[in-house]
Structure to design on (463 residues):
């Protein structure tokens, strides 16, 4: 008889101990790579090991090398945590071990995705019938949305890119803000366009694409090339939002496809207080975002949306004799994402939305916004330079108007362990980048973290 209870009980006990300790745990790894190799390494095992012992030794070996990104005082990158319902659903997803590529392979996973897709469209206010793909993250969401864009703009030019490829195809140009995220460039590389296809559009001091600059480029286009415009809602440094309404107007007049990179900023649509930031979002053609950011579901969980399902399916779907694809209209998930075999990512997203509801998701977004404002105010009152308008959840800070001091404060804060945030370069200057995205972050986390940052800054300047 297979012993499921032993290893799963060990995993449960280790996991709940870790999660319960997050509020007071040092926010940073406690071991370096050499220590982790010593703890986890050794010779290839000659024979089997009892499963519960494997789980216990694995947990003990990785414990000190974990970056506690689920902590309410973790402000690095733009990471979320995991809510209880979504984490529990993710465990079940693993236990059920469904291949969610086809309806035939898992009717339950396909229907959960279908329902969850409808809920997501309603949450974001996207057009009725918008198709949804559940992918790994914003990188693949941008890839998939831009693949649909590639299909459609070339189809309009009389070219079947899925059949004919790109050799000999009409040249496609991509207009994107100079402060776009690197996942857009990377997606264009994957799609065979290369980054030379990008024409950077001038941005303002907060990193927002200037609509007048975009309109001028579109107006002056004499070649009438197939065109994709990439807008951004939520600059990764400042949190700033392109004006999607002002982007879509001239772009659609020109016949361009508008793709929106809304990795975290798209979630502003759920908040009555912040929805003005995404005014006109429903006018775009495709959108990318992450569920493992503000919805706070476990990694990995990205989402792509397309207002033109036929273009979405044309770019992604595949047919093969051995596949059992549904003939009765049921949704085959592989028609909407780049993968065949994949885990049932829709299940944790379903659980998170079911547990929180619209009001619960909005509360997380609103609270993180309020906490970002609180963090910026505390640092500004303490003499730090806040470089951005805190419109959402991102705070850019500089110390002593000095690159070296700023970078050293970031490093020393990471080493100290009260909180963790990353550094960046903004408009040629070093900065500390603070991202408030975790569902558990509250005023005490902010005040404790701000006091630590200022204390480290003061000590560094004195020394």
């Amino acid at each position: 008889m297979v012993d499921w209870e032993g290893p799963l009980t060990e995993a449960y006990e280790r996991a709940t101990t870790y999660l319960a300790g997050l509020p007071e745990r040092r926010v940073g790894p406690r071991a370096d790579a050499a220590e982790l190799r010593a703890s986890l390494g050794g010779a290839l095992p000659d024979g089997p090991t009892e499963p519960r012992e494997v789980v216990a030794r694995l947990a003990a070996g990785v414990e000190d090398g974990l970056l506690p990104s689920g902590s309410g005082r973790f402000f690095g990158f733009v990471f979320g945590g995991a809510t209880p319902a979504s984490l529990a659903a993710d465990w079940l997803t693993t236990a059920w071990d469904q291949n969610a590529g086809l309806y035939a392979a898992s009717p339950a996973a396909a229907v959960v995705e279908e329902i969850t897709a409808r809920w997501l469209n309603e949450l974001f206010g996207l057009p009725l019938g918008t198709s949804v793909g559940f992918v790994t993250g914003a990188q693949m969401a941008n890839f998939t949305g831009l693949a649909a864009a590639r299909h459609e703009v070339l189809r309009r030019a009389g070219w079947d890119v899925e059949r004919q490829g790109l050799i000999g195809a009409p040249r496609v140009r991509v207009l994107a803000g100079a402060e776009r995220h690197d996942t857009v460039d990377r997606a264009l590389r994957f799609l065979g366009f290369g980054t030379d296809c990008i024409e950077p559009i001038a941005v303002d001091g907060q990193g927002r694409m200037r609509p007048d600059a975009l309109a001028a480029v579109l107006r002056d286009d004499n070649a009438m090339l197939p065109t994709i415009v990439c807008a951004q809602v939520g600059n990764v440094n400042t949190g700033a939002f392109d004006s999607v309404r002002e982007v879509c107007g001239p772009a659609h007049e020109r016949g361009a496809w508008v793709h929106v990179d809304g990795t975290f900023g798209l979630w502003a649509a759920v908040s009555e207080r912040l929805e003005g930031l995404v005014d006109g979002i429903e006018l775009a053609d495709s959108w990318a975002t992450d569920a493992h950011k503000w919805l706070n579901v476990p990694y990995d969980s990205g989402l792509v949306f397309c207002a033109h399902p036929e273009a979405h399916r044309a770019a992604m779907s595949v047919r093969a004799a051995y596949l059992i694809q549904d003939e009765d209209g049921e949704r085959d998930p592989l028609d909407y994402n780049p993968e065949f075999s994949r885990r049932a990512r829709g299940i944790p997203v379903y659980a998170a939305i079911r547990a929180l509801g619209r009001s619960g998701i909005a509360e997380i977004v609103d609270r993180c916004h309020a906490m970002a404002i609180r963090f910026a105010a505390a640092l500004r009152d303490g003499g730090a330079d806040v470089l951005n308008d805190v419109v959402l959840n991102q705070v850019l800070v500089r110390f002593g108007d000095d690159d070296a001091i700023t970078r050293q404060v970031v490093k020393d804060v990471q080493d100290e362990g009260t909180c963790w945030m990353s550094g960046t370069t903004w408009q040629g200057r070093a900065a500390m980048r603070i991202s408030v995205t975790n569902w558990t972050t509250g005023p005490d986390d902010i005040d404790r973290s701000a006091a630590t940052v200022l204390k480290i800054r003061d000590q560094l300047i004195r020394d």
In short: The longest strand covers residues 429-435. The chain has two domains: 5-68, 89-352.
